[in-house]
Amino acid sequence: MSETLFGVDTDGAAVPQAGEDLRSTPASEGKQGGAFAYRGDKSNGVLFILRYPDYPYFSPQAEEAFIKTIGALKLTWQNVAVVNLANPHNPNDFKQIMEFFQPTKITLLGVEPASLKLPAIGHNAYMKGRVATVFNTFSFEEMFADPEKKKLFWSEFKTFING
Question: Where are the domains of the chain?
Answer without folding.
Answer: 34-162
